[in-house]
Amino acid sequence: MAHVLVIGASQGIGLETVRAALAAGHRVRAFARSAHRIALSDPNLERFSGDALNGSDVAAALDGVDAVVQALGVPVRDLLGPVRLFSDATGLLVPAMEKAGVRRLVAVTGFGAGDSRDAISPLQRLPFRLVFGRAYDDKDAQEMRIRRSRLDWTLVRPGVLTGGRATGRYRVLDKPSSWRNGLIARADVAHFLVGQIEDASRIGKAVVLIERALPL
């Protein structure tokens, strides 16, 4: 079992990843500014309060871990202005991991980031850009920083996120010709992320995750 650092652990995919990693028997260091509020009880859980934009916090959180899951998110209200969280946090994380000798990085971005942008259907393209354009421009920069690194990385691009329990019926689309948008539960994304911690088969690759495809 691995010692895993989950960045962005207090809510959303990050919190689901903490749950799934603990259920799989991993030791988890849950990193977030509000880590002390994580309402889980497990002897393998360590709450680590820190800021993903603070280099000292990130360096300290990497001490002794085997792998990192980066699952950052921004509030909807912040989508209306400039977004820099993803690229700025990754700009700190990548060199800190390289310096610490922590090689495995599983990073959540999203469908529409990087080269998956070309797979957005014409009908979805305009509303996607209007709502998420600033965030996804920053996710593009995040992905580029990761790709240029010396890390053993995997980029995970979920579709439209939903609540509820994991179904296990999601699809892993690893070929550009198969990429399309769809719905997927956060808990299913977390299930996939945890599976990648010790799986080397998708190192250096980007995948799209969906359960049910959206109409074009």
TrEMBL record:
<dbReference type="InterPro" id="IPR036291">
    <property type="entry name" value="NAD(P)-bd_dom_sf"/>
</dbReference>
<feature type="domain" description="NAD(P)-binding">
    <location>
        <begin position="8"/>
        <end position="199"/>
    </location>
</feature>
<dbReference type="InterPro" id="IPR016040">
    <property type="entry name" value="NAD(P)-bd_dom"/>
</dbReference>
<dbReference type="Pfam" id="PF13460">
    <property type="entry name" value="NAD_binding_10"/>
</dbReference>
<protein>
    <recommendedName>
        <fullName>NAD(P)-binding domain-containing protein</fullName>
    </recommendedName>
</protein>
